[in-house]
Amino acid sequence: MENIGHGGKEIVERVLPKDAALKRLNELKAAKAKVLDVRLQIATEVIDIAYGFFSPLEGFMTKADVEGVCNNMTLADGKTVWSIPIVFDISDDELKKSGIKQYDEILLTYTGNPFAIFDVTDIFTLDKKEIAMKVYGTTEDKHPGVKRTYQYQDKFLGGKITLINPPKINEPFTRFWLTPKQMREKFKEKGWEMIINHQTRNVPHTGHEWLMKGAYLGAYGSMMVDKPRGGILVNAIIGSKRDGDYIDEAIILCQEAQGKYGYFREDTFLTTCSLWDMRYAGPREAVFHACLRTNLGCTHHMFGRDHAGVGSYYDPYDAHRIFNTLPKGSLNITPIFNLDWWFCPVCDEVTYMGLCGHKDKKASFSGTMIRSIIQDGVKPPRRIFRPEVFDLIMECAEKYGFGDAFVTEDYLKRRNPVFTIEPL
Amino acid sequence: MENIGHGGKEIVERVLPKDAALKRLNELKAAKAKVLDVRLQIATEVIDIAYGFFSPLEGFMTKADVEGVCNNMTLADGKTVWSIPIVFDISDDELKKSGIKQYDEILLTYTGNPFAIFDVTDIFTLDKKEIAMKVYGTTEDKHPGVKRTYQYQDKFLGGKITLINPPKINEPFTRFWLTPKQMREKFKEKGWEMIINHQTRNVPHTGHEWLMKGAYLGAYGSMMVDKPRGGILVNAIIGSKRDGDYIDEAIILCQEAQGKYGYFREDTFLTTCSLWDMRYAGPREAVFHACLRTNLGCTHHMFGRDHAGVGSYYDPYDAHRIFNTLPKGSLNITPIFNLDWWFCPVCDEVTYMGLCGHKDKKASFSGTMIRSIIQDGVKPPRRIFRPEVFDLIMECAEKYGFGDAFVTEDYLKRRNPVFTIEPL
Asked: Class assignment of domain B174-420?
């Protein structure tokens, strides 16, 4: 049971050991297999598929899968919940030029190095506007997920992926990147029976800290006295950045610092990252996150206010309500729905919307407020922001952000990539 | 289903309406029924039995019940969990003098006024030392529960109780005293599906507040966005006092103040009281509290550190562990086990033993610390003690405590009784 992932199936792991990989590479070369060099998003998703982050997906979606996802929020089988299309796009020109046909086995390269084998079983087109409407609830290209959909090329290839050349994860991310099977090993090692996932793309303030603490209390209502029965997994999403996002290095190191400096007991806290380009699909992205974290071995997933939303496309609690629409038993993970945590000047502490009676006096943790604290560089009260986390942001800005804790064009150009594919 | 109490049976309510009561009283008088005037503890327990606080008990225990409680922690049926003997004691002399025999129907009076009918079906003796050992785990009479056991007279009467003259609950307790059926009505009115009981004999500091907040988060892991699904019932135990206890009036009014002044949302918070002389039986008292609050209609019951213990007779978490020894399904209430909450100077807030990594720096909320704060009369920081609660303690000390917030001999002599039995 322990390696069962989303959809009730064994966690996918389609990664060849070095010897077998070299042999297959030589066979492909001998057979003059067609070669496609892929961009960062596709390389990221190849890795996710191959290690089972996207279990039970074994490859990029076929047209039937995409249609199932759009129309029923399931894969083509009509049963397995899936909310976001995972597709491999290719331009008409490139498709013609490469001569790829159905049932071709093609070699994928990334930054020119051999990377994965792609068994193309479906070649198809999609109605992007329809996808946008069904997945994101809007066709406006101001929505970053819609924009990404419109930017796909016009043809799509579906089929299974086999990784032949594992990524090298670069510093400071190395120790935070665990595959689904490695995460499960880690949880076993720690003796955790329950694992609550916290999704983040943020440097944590005390509002986030209490969101996690509240969810922990929620899941462990009946915590044993003598040992922690489980813990919190902070699983940071590392992927494409938007202007003004925190730099990835600050996110992951500052999340870890919460355990390191005792704001969480180290035996109840773990920080890791997963590679994913946020789609900001709000409720549908929440469902996707639930599937992803099922594959990591989590038993619970917290969903706060405006989970994975953007602008005002979704109601702040749509991402809670969508779980009521899913058939019972279709997810192997328990959602924990958190309302807002805010700073209450009467209680003189961070407190919970479901409990605090001073709503009219609350001070919300707005992104803008926190950003201005960081940009001013003046250390805020420790009840708002942990001083060790604050110092670490400044250090990360210096060391990784070219002087800035937030994403700039300069950072995007000059940063060290999160992973590289070396020659095989 | 809604009026099902502990043991899976309809809530007991053995209270005659006025007309029927007068009729029965006249019948008893005509039949020259024997009359016993009872002391406060017995009067309290008559009320508890008659209104179903002790469901499924319909009267004072027979010898078979007491033996079941001591040996198997069940009633005589061998199935219904019960942990504390509920007995009616009488001296040899009084028994002889009154001439009470098995199957007599006797009239109980309190402060001389007709009060209840007692169908005596069993007259027996008990081994008090054995009871002490089995219920309290000690035979030392420094233990207040043991002392109470040893103070019982030498004979015991068992049989059903019928209340013929309801108590008048005096101020300021009137609005806080609801019978089990009335509590259930109240919860329905509030639309609460889940009710978490907080047991208290204390004026609340922020450690207690967070104990409740944590338990709330524990029970409502999946709280609905649009309305509270339930709330916290503070059910204060009002009964015999020990030197240095808070005065009852301060306890109940200060508990209520937490909602009144917004430290809890009023729609998620309710304060009531129940009448009971604490036995300080630690784990066995925890089980008793679980049964009592099942009868009040609660779905959850929080158990913190050293629940209902005294001195060092029990391990601080024995009251958690005992629940693992009960057969599955023997309780209709879910225990929520809370570890310690303390003030952490690094986190700069009240924080949880299961989460905070600064254990070596913690400042515990000791009774002594809080007592000295109150005795000094200097308002503490609002993160430790709510100023409105502090002011109210001072007010209660003046109004009800003869200048003291804690129980004194003077208070015990001069206080207004919690309830009175008026002439019928």
From this structure: alpha beta
